[in-house]
Amino acid sequence: MRNMNEKQQLANNHISVDCVVIGFDGERLKVLLIKRAGEENGEIFHDMKLPGSLIYMDEDLDEAAKRVLFELTGLKNVHLTQFKAFGSKDRTKDPKDVHWLERAMSMKVERIVTVAYLSLVKIDRALNRGLEEYQAEWVALPDVKALAFDHNLIIREAMAFIRQYVDANPAALFDLLPRKFTALQLRRLYELVYGNPIDVRNFHKKIALMGYVMPLDEREQGVAHRAARYYRFDKKIYNKLRR
Amino acid sequence: MRNMNEKQQLANNHISVDCVVIGFDGERLKVLLIKRAGEENGEIFHDMKLPGSLIYMDEDLDEAAKRVLFELTGLKNVHLTQFKAFGSKDRTKDPKDVHWLERAMSMKVERIVTVAYLSLVKIDRALNRGLEEYQAEWVALPDVKALAFDHNLIIREAMAFIRQYVDANPAALFDLLPRKFTALQLRRLYELVYGNPIDVRNFHKKIALMGYVMPLDEREQGVAHRAARYYRFDKKIYNKLRR
To answer: Which of A84, A87, A164 sits opposite B15 (nearest CB)?
Structure first.
């Protein structure tokens, strides 16, 4: 719990926030995790968890999520959306998790409801600066192993939420893409979010119909294959079309 | 807190659930509230609140929501969807609310995060049976006065959630309508959910385009005006069209 200001008073030991930060590297969806080391039955273990923490007395849930993400990963100015509260009585059934948290927080841990937040971000150099120092790491979704608490479940539910959210707000997908992207990248992203392969030709028709995805006069450079055209997302046109 | 089994152990005094149950009487959207009486500064007060309660040790959030709704209103077999957690530090700033809850629960109350659930139901005779006995009442949304805690905010956010939800799942609207409904009722419902008047003629075109709203060979009976045709929602066709 790096940077945890021990003078801050916790609101209680029952309410936490956790942040699911999702990025796309052009090939795969990744989630930002932090490394955890603990000791259980005299054995040291290493695993990972979502950036999260109990909340302080003087902060609202949204504030706590922002604070936690910054403290644990250095990320700031990131848009966080609350998507679900997780409060199963089984969340804290693994003694490993309970003991780790009790040591980290120096307090007794019982039932904890966590309020989960989601952020879709562009994985770029600025964002990655200093992640190592924070013991934070981007992990591709298929490579995520057993995480602390119910964090695997929280990530699964985040993905289900993203699908619904993108249905209602297609613009959200472009938060994951670089400013200039290829049709292949956009198609790959759709495939990953919806979990289905998409036919290439149908997808080019789909792009043409999107109206707010604008072809640029610019192509990829220094690639072995035929250089693909770049596109960009036009937020103004999107807003006009959606009104 | 009628029917509250005092032998049940509360998980803690920090986590509650609240249920926003919305119905449509053909004219107006209504929310199911329960009456509250308390004493503050030696004065008796009467107001209303959402059906809600702290959670028990042995129950998950979804279970708590179901239990609370049944205990406080008699409703069961109602589909509840979690839509947002409310955890502002200002939620419990009104001493009236804190004192009332402390008396009701016989415990000290501090910061409480509440997980809010939403249900869209048909207001029919079966549903209304026994509501009075429970001190529960349907209140039209424009008539809702200042409620306990942040319950006015929770209802506002529920309405915003409904709009988004109906955009993604148009079928949800039909949960609010009787099995047979008129075009006027459906239009009125759209107007209330989206907060905009809808042109009658455009709306009839819209219904024709819906595919899953089927005209019946049946009309209203015993009305002073020209008897309107009934329609019904066809879930099978809806599912086929949406696939």
So the answer is: A87
